[in-house]
Write a structure and sequence with these properties.
Largest sheet: 4 strands, antiparallel
Shape: elongated
Order of helices and strands: EHHHEEEEEEHE
Number of domains: 2
CATH class of the largest domain: Mainly Beta
Length: 172
């Protein structure tokens, strides 16, 4: 089964709400991100021939802090990933890489209403069909739709494409 990643026109497209991204970005994830950048800096420091230089160590640390802070600021204030419902697949382009799930491979879609700091959105969780011998890389398993009337249109398109949609009530 093959499909074009950059092919047909989208049936519908939108950006995931920033509140969805913010809700999933916890202090714990920021600390992990910071430690990863710091670990990379320490490895570079350890492999460099001038590693005993205090000046070089200060340069490594001064580079790791702004990189981790830029990542945090990008996650907190940047816009959400673009999502598109295409003729044959759902596609998310996060950065320069894109992920896609073909409608025929989706077993069901669970819809959960959610909100974060007054912004309402719906989280769609996809259950994929099981394949014993096939490993599919960069498949979409979850994405968010803003609560601006788009949810009903997205669900209609998914149902038209043969995806079983299960709507869950709001927890509030």
């Amino acid at each position: 089964m093959s499909f074009q990643i950059y092919g047909n026109e989208p049936l519908m497209k939108w950006r995931e709400p920033n509140a969805y991204k913010r809700k999933n970005f916890t202090a714990r994830r920021f600390i992990k991100f910071f430690l990863l950048v710091l670990a990379c800096t320490i490895v570079i420091f350890a492999l460099h021939p001038n590693r005993y230089s205090v000046k070089f160590f200060a340069i490594c640390i001064s580079l790791s802090l702004p990189i981790s802070l830029m990542g945090f600021i990008g996650m907190w204030f940047g816009s959400g990933s673009p999502v598109g419902l295409m003729q044959d697949r759902i596609a998310i382009a996060a950065g320069k890489t894109s992920a896609a799930s073909i409608y025929n491979e989706i077993e069901s879609c669970d819809v959960y209403p959610d909100s974060y700091q007054g912004t309402k959105f719906s989280v769609l969780k996809l259950t994929m069909k099981k394949h014993d011998r096939i490993l599919i890389i960069s498949q979409i398993t979850q994405f968010a739709v803003p609560d601006d009337g788009s949810v009903e249109m997205v669900l209609k398109i998914l149902r038209d494409k043969g995806v079983k949609v299960v709507e869950h009530p709001s927890l509030s």
